[in-house]
Write a structure and sequence with these properties.
By secondary structure, this protein is mostly helical. The chain contains 2 helices and no strands. The longest helix has 12 residues. The chain is elongated and about 65 Å long. The termini are far apart.
């Protein structure tokens, strides 16, 4: 025999969000940011790294 599904507990956040979606509509889909800046290195490169790049 199959078990009955346990009803989910009530969460106020989910209820408020559902009401907002009904009234206002679903939020716009997010967009991927293409040109993110590359962060600089936190430490100066060591002599070993400088010589290894060449």
């Amino acid at each position: 025999m199959r078990r009955k599904k346990k009803p989910k507990t009530f969460r106020a956040v989910e209820a408020v969000k559902a009401m907002a979606r009904e009234r206002i509509g679903a939020p716009k889909a997010s967009q991927v940011v293409v040109g993110r800046k590359k962060k600089d290195e936190k430490h100066k490169p060591t002599l070993e790294r400088l010589l290894g790049e060449e």
